[in-house]
Automatic annotation (TrEMBL):
Keyword Metal-binding: yes
Entries under SUPFAM superfamilies matching the protein: Cytochrome P450
Protein's recorded name: Cytochrome P450
Family recorded in the similarity comment: Belongs to the cytochrome P450 family.
Pfam family, one: p450
UniProt keyword annotations, A-Z: Heme, Iron, Metal-binding, Monooxygenase, Oxidoreductase
């Protein structure tokens, strides 16, 4: 007997995340930015205005990690050197990723007193990247088969076809937004395929990614209800897909079906389900889309490297690694110290927040020569830690690399040269590092 699929919930028309934040900041300028600590790299304005590089350089020269006593996110240790981040990531029991201690972003976990004063209940979103062993291990193993080398081989033909078809539709002789037309379209389409998500609704994935992955937005209490309302709509939509897949008679290998058939994930609470959805959506969307935009911007800034790419397509695999290093699409991850310890001569107390600034480590002069320059021939480009390090290294790293390689190969096949030809707007955030708009024009080489 056939099962009637549940009707998918309606998703209301809501402002985009960056538009809501922009409107709020117009009416409520952030007074915390008027007298900042000179090394408080949690401030979103330095990324929006692209002036973070000299601040981190000065910090790296002064040492591997520094205590920032005051910030919009409370006190934290800024870990800025490559070796220090690898050291901390290699000790996951001592430096916890668990949501119970504060999770993986710089955001504060409110105390019971703060919650009571605001009259709100605690809202937690557990996800496997914000778990310690053994929970992390079981849930990661559930989705990992989707990202193995053999799975990448199976997906490459489809990725190449979709990429080529999109590039063939791009206008010539007119300015358009690369972020929306190419980066978002390719990554959102990939996510839709991974989830088995309805194709006609795929742009919802980008919308939800922006509302869930913006640390700056999450600090604005006045937008809390709107934000949580949108995330609950996301969960309801995915819940309807979960119910559909539960009643499928044919086996499927999309991520939702893999969760359903996993002992580690088929009994998730609603909060854990929502948390893991956010992890997979932000991880699969923001990181790849911002590197796809970052590649174009970097090639325009370094025309000698674009010329190398055009003349030596065999450099493309290494160019992908170098562009990921140069862009670093997630600026930081956070850990919480579980007991008093010492790191590189600094006394770290139990409960201290350590923010691992990947964006700084990937410009560390001790590892990368002339690090502020794009160099697609760089011999050690693969030493970047844009995907993290250790047990929490990005599970979808191979897929991101594949999508970027295919994009460059298909551009080269069409002899496409992309020039920045208009507005460039960066994301106003300290977590996701990328572009909101990148107006370009295409010529041929």
């Amino acid at each position: 007997m056939a099962t009637v699929a549940p009707e998918r919930p309606q998703v209301r028309s809501s402002p985009k995340a960056h538009e809501a934040l922009r409107e709020y900041l117009k009416e409520h300028p952030d007074e915390r930015l008027s007298h900042p600590h000179k090394w408080d790299v949690s401030r979103s304005d330095i990324y929006f205005e692209d002036r973070w590089q000299p601040i981190f350089k000065e910090m790296r020269e002064a040492g591997p990690l520094h205590y920032i006593e005051e910030s919009p996110f409370g006190p934290y240790w800024a870990v800025v050197q490559h070796k220090a981040i690898q050291h901390i990531e290699a000790l996951p029991e001592l430096f916890s990723s668990s949501w119970e201690h504060g999770g993986i972003t710089i955001l504060n976990r409110l105390s019971e007193e703060e919650l009571a004063a605001r009259g709100v209940e605690r809202r937690e979103l557990p996800m496997f990247i914000a778990m310690d062993r053994p929970q992390h291990t079981g849930q990661r193993r559930t989705v990992a088969p989707k990202f193995t080398p053999s799975a990448m081989t199976d997906m490459e033909t489809e990725i190449r076809q979709r990429t080529g078809e999109l590039l063939d539709t791009l206008p010539r002789g007119e300015v358009f937004d690369w972020v929306d037309t190419v980066s978002i379209e390719l990554t959102t389409g990939m996510l839709a395929i991974l989830f088995g998500f309805p194709w006609e609704d795929r742009r919802l994935l980008t919308f939800w990614s922006d509302w869930s992955g913006d640390t700056e937005l999450a600090t604005v209490r006045e937008l809390d209800e709107l934000r949580w309302g949108i995330l609950n709509e996301m969960a309801a939509y995915f819940q309807s897909l979960w119910i559909e897949r539960t009643h499928q008679t044919e086996p499927a290998d999309d991520l939702i079906s893999m969760m359903i058939h996993s002992d580690a994930m088929n009994q998730m609470s609603p909060e854990e389900f929502m948390g893991n959805l956010i992890l997979l959506i932000v991880g699969g969307n923001d990181t790849t889309r911002n590197t796809m935009s970052g590649i174009i911007h970097a090639f325009d800034k370094f025309p000698d490297q674009r010329k190398l790419f055009e003349e030596q397509p065999e450099l493309i695999p290494n160019a992908v690694q170098e562009c990921i290093r140069y862009q670093t699409p997630l600026a930081h991850m956070r850990r919480t110290c579980t007991e008093d310890t010492e790191v590189f001569g600094q006394q770290i107390k139990k409960g201290d927040k350590l923010v691992l600034w990947y964006i700084s480590a990937n410009r560390d002069e001790e590892v990368f020569e002339d690090p502020d320059k794009l160099d697609i021939t760089r011999e050690n480009a693969r030493r970047h830690i844009a995907f993290g390090y250790g047990i929490h290294r990005c599970v979808g790293a191979r897929l991101a690399e594949l999508q970027l390689r295919v994009l460059l190969e298909e551009m080269h096949k069409r002899r496409m040269r992309v020039h920045v030809a208009g507005d460039v707007e960066r994301v106003r955030a300290n977590f996701v590092h990328g572009f909101r708009k990148l107006e370009v024009e295409i010529t041929e080489f």
